[in-house]
Amino acid sequence: MYTLRAARAVPTATRTFSTTTPRALAKMQLIGRLADTPEAVPTSTGRELIKYSLGVQGGPRDENGNRAVSWFKVASFAEGAQRDLLLSLPKGTQMYVEAEAKMDKYQTQDGSERTALNLLQRNFEALSRPQNRANESTTGAESNTNAAEEPLSGIGAS
Fold first, then answer.
1. Is the dihedral of CA 71, 77, 78, 83 positive or negative?
2. Cα separations in angstroms, 85 against 6, 105, 112
3. Residue 72 in contact with residue 51, Cβ under 8 Å?
4. Is the pLDDT score of 74 beyond 70?
5. Lower Cβ count inside 10 Å, N or C end of the chain?
């Protein structure tokens, strides 16, 4: 014969892994190509903001074999060597970017309300040089063909 015992309450321990207060997290990771050379813009507080756009291909291929491109505007407060590296990257450079994502509402001049995705870069890595698509002389094309997808040295984090 079986007897049923009353379940004993077992004390549960609470363990804290962090001493900071919890915050909401919205993070994006992107791999894409620079639409143009990043540019530095001064802010009203005197800091320098670096702005650039990243094109990310995705989705199914169309009848020409091309994938759709989504464009993301990214801002960065990188300083020192990271700032210099970011500003030296040419158009077409393939990059890996980690950014905080935030949806902001604003009003246009005609009074309508819009929503925009704002990305603030936290880390980046330059993955490869831009692809060379320009027609060059034979000697120039041969020397640049080998460098078309050569990895870049330098990992960035801001």
1. positive
2. 67, 32, 39
3. no
4. yes
5. N
State whether the Cα torsion 52-155-124-148 is positive or negative: positive
Half-sphere exposure of 12 (CA within 13 A, CB side): 1
Domain that holds residue 47: 27-157
Backbone angles phi, psi at 79, to 5 degrees: -130, 160
The domain that contains 75 carries what CATH number? 2.40.50.140
The two three-digit tokens of residue 13, written as one number: 């321990």
- Look up residue 124 and give its two tokens: 């980046």
136 is a domain residue? yes
- Extract the tokens encoding 135: 């027609």
- Dig out the tokens for 144 from the structure: 């640049």
Residue type, 103: M
Per-residue model confidence as pLDDT tens digits over 114-125: 999 999 999 999
Residues 95 and 34 sit within 8 Å (Cβ to Cβ): yes
